[in-house]
Amino acid sequence: MSKQVAVILSGCGVQDGAEIYETTLTLLRLDQLGIGYRCFAPDIAQHHVIDHRRSEVAPDEARNVLVESARLARGEINELAELDAEEFDAVILPGGFGVAKTLSDFAVAGSDMQILDRLAGPLVAFHDARKPIGLMCIAPVLVPRLFGEGIAVTVGHDPAVSGAISAMGGLHRGCRVDDIVVDFEHRIVTTPAYMLAERISEAASGIFKLVDRIDELMEL
User: Looking at 12, 39, 137, 175, which residue is catalytic?
Assistant: First the structure.
């Protein structure tokens, strides 16, 4: 497999980590296209743990992002500090509230958010090297804070999140669940995924398009 993509995870579970279906669909499509991949996650504590059955905070539980992400990667995962943009052709960041709670504080701070340094460093390195970057679900909120103003992204139609993107200088584009938004100048591809999806097949349509476009951009 000549092409190699880094996939950055934020735990395991939509409400406090990486969205499981988004991650699995991403890895599936990469494999279908014959693209190699490696998963990465930071070795830090989660912001908090959610009981996904009850959608309630579990105050007596604590979990580690790298350990939880290893569940999704079947143990084949590296610490995020080991990610070297020079070794990969592109990077993809699935959504899930781990992005907004642990990899950043967007869930609390909104447009005043800060991004985890050990995430920002590698993503900026990919951007500076003009290597394609894919983000889905809530993850596109990171773009204006990381890469500056005027970059087109989508989270679908959510007014609060799209408003925060605009407040940070981003260009939000409305988008159907089965489609993508591409900023060709900055080589950034985004899709709403479970910001809009009600079924896994709906999420798959946009995610597969995102991975396909990342594949095309790696050729340019």
Answer: 137
